[in-house]
Structures are given as C-alpha cells and as structure tokens.
Amino acid sequence: MTTSPLQKVPVRMLLRLTVCVFGLSLLLLIFDKSSLFLRRIGPVTFAPPNPLERHVDVSNLTETRISDPDSPDNPDSLDNPDSPDPVPAAVGERKATSDIKPETPFPNLDDQHPVKPDTSVRNVTGIPSSHQNDQTGPAPFDVADPLEGYIGVPDGSKQLGLHCGVCALVSSSGQLLHYKAGNEIDEADCVIRMNEAPVLGFEEHVGSRTSLRVMCFRSINLVPENTTLFSRAGKSSLLGWGPPRDMDTRKGKAYKKLQRLETRYPDLEVYRLTEDRMRYADRVFEAETGRPRIKSGAWLSTGWFTMLVAMEICDVIKVYGMISEDYCRTHPDDNTLYHYFSKRWNECGYYKAQQNVRSGGHRFITEKTIFARWATQNNITFLYPSWDP
C-alpha cells in the first residue's frame, strides 16, 4: 500500500505548525484592529506640562501651585463654576499644596510675551463715555448714574451712594510694613480696603478706619462671620464681586454669606456688583490692552475692581503700598511680602509667576501699567512707595 506525503509528517510537527499559523493569524488581527483605532483617534501627541502643575521658584516664591482668593487657578471661577472649594492653607505657611485645578489653557496665549496695554486712541463701542476721544481712563458705567452697577444686598433697588473727596485706597502689600502711614491714611475722607486685609494689630502701618471694603467671592466665603473686619469697623460698606453662580440671589454661596453679614452687623451696608458691571470691567480691560480678558488667559484682580469703583466715588485717590509695573525689575533683590498680614508669598516672585502663567493668572504688572496711565489724566497718586506714573 502506498503512503501519502502527509502521512509521513509526524503528528507533533503538524500540531506545532497549526499553533504557529493560528498565532500569526491572531497577531495580524490585532495589528489590523490597532491600525483602525489609530486612524480613528488621529496622531498621538504629548501635551507639554501645564505651568500651574510644575514647581515655581522665582525670586523666593516657594509655592507648588499658585493660588489667590480671587483667582481662577482655584476651582471657583467664571469659567469653572461647578468645582468645589479647596481648603485654604493656614496663614504664615511658606509652602502650600492643594487640589486646586487650573482653567483650561488658551492656546493662542504666548506666555513669554505678557499682555501690554494698548495706549493708542480708539473708540470703544458699547461703553458710554463723556470723553471717548481722549481715552483718559475707563468710561463710566453710566454717565447719568455711574453707580447703578453696585446694588444692595438683599435690597437690589438700593444703590451704593458713597461719594468722597479724598480717598485712601490701601493695598494689601507687605510694602506697607516699611512705613508708618497709619495716621495719614486715617486722615482721608474715605478709606478703601480689599478682601480680608486686617486692621487690628497693623494700625500703625495701615490705619484704623474702613469706609468701604471690596471683597471677591472667595474671600467672602472664607471669612468668619464673627470677624473683626466688620465688628470693629463701625459704619462702613462692603462691596462683593463674583461669578453668577456665587452671586445668584436664590442660592449663590457668596450672596447668602453677604445676606448673613448684613443681618449680623447693623452698621454694615452690603452691596454687590451686577453681572452687567462685571462684563463692563472685562470690556475696560479689553479696551486698554486690545485683547479680550478670557482669550488672554487673564483673571481680573480685586485691585482692578477696587480702582474702578474708586474712580467713580472719589475726587482724589491716594493709593498706599502699590508698587509700579517696573518695580520688581529695578529691585531684583526685594523680598517684600505679597501681603502685609501673611508670610506666604514674596510679592515680586508672585507677580512674575502670575504675569506669565498661561491661564487663570492675575496680570498684576499689566494692571499697574494701566493704573499708571489713568493716573496721568485723573487725580491719582501712589504713596509708600512713592512713584510717578
């Protein structure tokens, strides 16, 4: 009987050949599926590290991440309204870490070229003004009634009726600790302060009176209801600002806190910025820099809102403790604290880091350049340190 060639092949070899063919078929199938998946998702790229996630070490700034009460590099921002509040670090800490998440970066911002104000003459539509041609400063919110953007809490029909001859606008800078300007500050008709900057224990440097305190939504939420900021202030006003979620009259967290403060302190008149007023502040920023605030990655500081309201209610503004836009460049070894009541940050290091962060940063240096321009056409002077615009 004749034996076929297939019968001469050992069974073991046939099994091995079958396994090899099956394995090769499986690999080809996997490769085909992988190719299809890659074609669907497009090319794979690796994004550069977010600047807020890396360690910042500029001029003794020792923060792992940048945080500020009115900044959107914390979750509570106009562009990220649904994130929870982080737990604030204790005052006096040099280093702090948290679960703070930055906003989504804006790809068109070149963080190596900070925003510079556009000082050219331009016609800003949508902002009523009695001096559109010379553009000496921010156009008033309403020429006939410039304070309609500041309304009462809880009585929304009530408007901020404050008018002052000479105002002392007191910054929160550690620069104030280098001087004893307290008595001079208290001599002003009105004294304006910002956020949670205290008076108690610092009277020699910052004065003891408070006529108006401007607070961001973050500071409003975090300040204790039994704080001496209001219990010792006597008759004064509080002006709060924040995103619609926090200032919602029905369930806004900051708004509810303002209501409780208004009830607790009979001598405290409480107001808030309207949404229109918030948008107006954005338009002023765009008019002065030539770039929309959100697209530039900037977040307006409480100082920005405070300067705007000061120019509406004050005939003369004396700004205490605010450095010029070139101060840090001309004082490279300066170690002044960012806040006079906290050792947490170095002022110049923090300013530089915020100026160059891709998104969610305050443009402090840009803002001060704009303030200097306004000062040349308005009755604004800068003291302690003193500098000419």
From TrEMBL:
Region Disordered: list its residue ranges: 63-139
Q: Which GO terms describe its molecular function?
A: alpha-N-acetylgalactosaminide alpha-2,6-sialyltransferase activity
Source organism of this protein record: Branchiostoma floridae
For this entry, list what GO says about its biological process.
Answer: cell-cell recognition; ganglioside biosynthetic process
Q: Where's it mainly located? A: Golgi
Instruction: Point out the gene that encodes the protein.
Output: LOC118414638
Keywords in alphabetical order, please.
Answer: Disulfide bond, Glycoprotein, Glycosyltransferase, Golgi apparatus, Lipid metabolism, Membrane, Sialic acid, Signal-anchor, Transferase, Transmembrane, Transmembrane helix
User: Where are stretches of biased composition, namely Basic and acidic residues?
Assistant: 92-102
- Comp. bias intervals (Polar residues): 120-136
The transmembrane segments are: 13-31
Name of the protein in question: Alpha-N-acetylgalactosaminide alpha-2,6-sialyltransferase 6
Pfam families from the UniProt entry: Glyco_transf_29
